[in-house]
Design goal:
single chain; 19% helix; 26% strand
Length: 88
């Protein structure tokens, strides 16, 4: 599980693939889909890494906050590579 979500750690920048994106006005979708979110916490067996698809990830942006599943997130830019160097 660690490799699959190695880009998720507290402080990481992520993009949220909001499952409710189609509820927004079409003009707002691109903008909302490209918001930079920050991981504020991981609620699961280990608070430092994602250990399950069922863990809850706490994220926030300058506009909002949300509780999401790790499968809804993707790296924002090159966080995944940065994390690997950080752990070496």
């Amino acid at each position: 599980m660690e490799d699959k979500y190695d880009f998720i750690w507290v402080g990481a920048k992520v993009r949220w693939n909001d499952p409710g994106i189609n509820d927004y006005d079409p003009e707002d979708r691109d903008w909302k889909a490209n918001i930079e979110w920050t991981v504020d916490g991981i609620v699961g067996a280990d608070e430092d890494v994602v250990t399950s698809d069922c863990d809850i990830i706490l994220i926030s942006s300058e506009y909002s906050e949300a509780e999401v599943y790790p499968s809804e997130l993707e790296p924002y830019k090159s966080n995944s590579k940065h994390r690997k160097y950080e752990q070496s």
